[in-house]
Specification:
The protein has 460 residues and is an alpha/beta fold. The strands form 3 sheets. It has a 7-stranded mixed beta sheet, with helices on both faces. The radius of gyration is 27 Å and the shape is globular.
Length: 460
């Protein structure tokens, strides 16, 4: 095994051909020094991480990529999962991207009133728009829905009890659990009912002098079927009014309309405006799921309660920035105009016609077969994803590629832009539902390159 004295100098490693694109950068010198110092320490202990200069250069390249091109990177989503949390959930509309670019390019009136020349409030930009969509007296925006729930409970329920059905004490993405969010807020959660059946009477029987609110949590990332019962928002509102309690509803997916997409895609999701009309005092939801906007928490409800949330000290910690507000405003405007199904990518994907998807898959299949790639087609099912519409699927037709699925998937992910697909039944499946029109050509180029590399490697 080579010893510490066999290591190259910093200058020598910087001159390695693998690192040529960073030559002249101060970061290259730092990378070379860091890798050489780490390897020297290893060899002094009788170990080695990088056996030769080429291995050191490869490690230096990784070091530089992690710091100079940290990501996130744009990818092509070919999984068929529309709101894919691991892939950034909702892709923004053209209008939302333009709005972000406009405010990011220079200064903005984020907290400045252009009419009076005095200080303004960032909350005013989408306040009226969101309140109108939710048919509510007032509204505000936070960084995400978990922040919205935490803010509502902290501002309205701290020191008291909140009633939650056992079937709604759910875990959301990333291991965050509703009971833990409630404890963090300073409210004490009281379980009512059972996992599969909870009635309005169960809430009424659990009320004590310390009870502040009833909290309904939409179980958006799972479904309980069979012998089940769950009271409606209106029924829970009646219980809350009778006992002088607040009704807080976490509506989860952020649906603004009960119109069903292809095959009833968005039926069954709580619609924010209907929650408010049925008596919820405060409603919260995600902005980057069915709404199709940036990550944000949407909050709407009674004016005096929203005002308390806006004044609460936690609000400063969970307030959105100018780019979120710009993107969200453009997205919400599309919903208010009624053209979201055409202009907001998530809505467009959910509403795509099966015949259109089949035609796209056929076009791709023909284009690849011309180049000698044995592509096929197969019926499949897309998913809404993002914890929305559990158990619901959308009919689609996928492009399929046979053999060596793990290698082919890895090569697809190595392309620029990377392509993320899925493997089933010994084939790679590429779903056109979640591929944006501008990504079709890059997708096919990536498939051709990945296929060639996979099979060239196998032949060697």
């Amino acid at each position: 095994m080579a010893g510490p004295r066999d290591l190259p100098s910093v200058d020598h490693l910087c001159a390695h051909e693998r690192l040529a694109r960073w030559r002249g950068s101060a970061a290259l010198t730092r990378a070379a020094r860091a890798l050489i110092d780490a390897e020297r320490a290893e060899r002094l202990q009788g170990r080695t991480q990088h056996a030769d200069e080429d291995a050191l250069a490869a490690a230096a390249e990784i070091w530089l990529l992690q710091r100079l091109q940290p990501g996130p990177r744009r990818v092509i989503n070919a999984t068929g999962i529309v709101v894919h949390t691991n892939l950034g959930r909702a892709p923004l509309s053209a209008a939302a991207r333009e709005a972000v670019q406009a405010v990011a390019a220079g200064y903005s009136d984020l907290e400045f009133d252009l009419r009076t020349g005095a200080r303004g409030s960032r909350h005013d930009h989408v306040r009226a728009l969101l309140a109108t969509l939710c048919d509510a007296e007032d509204a505000l925006v936070t960084t995400n829905n978990a922040a919205a729930v935490l803010l509502a409970l902290s501002a309205l329920c701290r020191g008291g009890e909140v009633l939650v059905s056992r079937g709604e004490a759910v875990e959301i993405g990333g291991g965050f659990r509703i009971p833990e969010v409630m404890r963090l807020s300073g409210a004490r959660m009281v379980d009512v009912g059972t996992t599969n059946r909870t009635r309005a009477a169960d809430y009424a029987q659990a009320v004590t002098p310390r009870t502040r609110a009833i909290v309904r949590v939409h179980p958006s990332n799972f479904a309980i079927v069979g012998f089940t019962e769950r009271p409606s928002t209106a029924e829970m509102s009646a219980v809350a009014r009778e006992h002088g309690l607040l009704l807080i509803e976490d509506a989860g997916s952020g649906a603004f309309s009960d119109e069903s997409a292809a095959g009833g895609a968005i039926s069954g999701e709580p619609v924010l405006a209907l929650c408010v009309r049925d008596g919820a005092d405060v409603v919260t939801a995600s902005g980057d799921k069915l709404a199709g906007g940036p990550q944000a928490g949407l909050v709407a409800g009674r004016a005096e309660l929203i005002a308390k949330l806006r004044r609460h000290p936690l609000m400063r910690a969970v307030r959105p920035d100018k780019m979120v507000l710009a993107a969200l405003g453009a997205t919400l405007a599309a919903h208010l105009r009624g053209d979201a199904a055409e202009s907001v990518p998530v809505q467009w994907m959910l509403h795509r016609d099966h015949a259109d998807l089949e035609a796209v898959a056929q076009r791709w299949c023909d284009a690849l077969r011309v180049g000698g790639i044995p592509a096929g087609m197969a019926s499949a099912a897309s998913a809404a994803g993002g914890g929305s519409l559990p158990g619901s699927t959308l009919p689609t037709t996928c492009l399929t590629l046979p053999g060596r699925t793990s290698r082919l998937l890895a090569e697809l992910r190595a392309q620029r832009p990377p392509v993320v697909a899925r493997a089933e039944q010994g084939r790679v499946w590429i779903d056109p539902r979640t591929v944006l029109p501008d990504d079709e050509a890059p997708l096919l180029d990536a498939v051709r390159t990945a296929w060639a590399r996979t099979h060239d490697r196998a032949e060697r």
